[in-house]
Amino acid sequence: MRILLVRAKPTFMDMILGIPIGLAYCAAVAEKAGHEVEILDLALEKSVESAHQLLRERMGGSSYDMAGMTCMTVEYPGAVETARVIRECDPSIPIVFGGQHPTIEPDEVIQNGVCDYLVVGEGEETFVELVRAIEQRTDPGKIPGLLFHRDGSPFRTPPRPATVDVEELPWPAYHLLEVDRYFEMESARYTPRHKRAIQIFTSRGCPWRCTYCHDLFGKKFRARSADNVFGEMKMLYDRYGVREYMIEDDIFNLDIERAKQICDLILGSEMNGNIHMQFGNGLRLERFDEELVRKMAQAGTHHIAVAIESASPRIQKLIKKNLHLNKAKDVLSWMRKYRINTLGFFMIGFPSETVDEIEQTIEFARQTELDEALFSIVIPYAGTEINKMVYEQGLYDPDEVARHGSKVVTIKSEHFDFYTLKKLQRRAYLSFFLSKGRVFRMLPKLFSLSSSKKYLKAIERNFLSYGGDSTSRVN
Predict the structure, then answer these.
(1) Residues sharing a CB contact under 8 Å with residue 88, sequence separation 6 or more, in sequence order
(2) Dihedral angle over CA of 461, 185, 298, 375, nearest 10
(3) Choices 3.40.50.300, 3.40.50.2300, 2.10.109.10, 3.40.50.150: CATH for 2-156
(4) Average pLDDT, whole number, for the chain?
(5) Which of 65, 109, 401, 427 could be disulfide-bonded to 1 (CB atoms 3.0-4.6 Å)?
(6) Taking the model in full, what pTM does it have?
(7) Measuring CA to CA, which residue among 332, 323, 330, 325 is closest to residue 305?
């Protein structure tokens, strides 16, 4: 079969781009099964209009047997519009949706009518089995992990009983991407040391059950072997000239010894001293020892982010993060010792959280050795446990849901309103960056061509443009 995989151009916000790694994995498994695949990343285009024009030209110049799309919640409106363009070009083509938003809101997506099939959860195995069923005209109702219309009504097959074996997955189909174009885009994470930076996954799944987090990859930690990970990194180094790796795992350092082995393989290769790494996601504070920090630094790590969220033991228990806060001092001192920049993630405005507990988090952050901090206002995104809690307990404004037509709402509390949270958020940033000489360490970044735009936008967002509207950015 000839398959076109598409990432839509977002319609209502300008997103910072990385490679569409989910599509690249699905393309790889489909190619391995003998199918012909193309990836069209419309998010790279300058406007929605030019993106749709490019899609029409591609559809008009080729004939495809299937189209597939993936989207996060913020990408969903754009994906819907893009699917309509595909349908306009070829009314008979089967359209498949997958990814984060279709997984957490499958009923909404399938009832929208823009797709024929919806892949729920990890998509690679389900997708390739669906392709085979369509090609061979067999019953897709026997494939686990699908939702589609049958006899005019939504029909859901049983969940896929096992998670994907990440060690057996082929590497993403980078050859189907215009890789060099991503090197010219604003970084999807922390400002890279080298512009030829790319995202990779080395594992999937996280055993912790934080209530604010999505659960696309499940709670079972599945890690690729160190040799497998190093092989992909070396291929990217040799074939595409990649010189920085942005690790996107849910929890990279759960297996400390495996993490050390990856570093050792880098240190024993020609990549030693020639690459950089950053971890903008998925590091658990307790899963460090000093040797791992040292090896990560030697292997080229210049930045890590750790999610602390709250300094209140009660809130830690409420959100099921249960972080050992006393470990922060040692880990952050090791990071400073080995000259790794550190960013802490904090959240304010949890259900039942008091202003005193928010102040406790602000003071904790201020006293740490963190170089930077991000203070986000809690948003109970659809598909999370905290969203369920907010709706069950009525901790939201129904008028807000009616206005925005979305399940992404701000939390209603007797302890604060949104305006109070914004004031606390501003105070958090001022208190943090005006302590321990952080503002002086930030000055080079504010005057750097590679990073100033991102930091100046953050300053404008949090200190210059806010007018009390709860729809404004939350971090």
Answers:
(1) none
(2) 20
(3) 3.40.50.2300
(4) 90
(5) 65
(6) 0.90
(7) 332
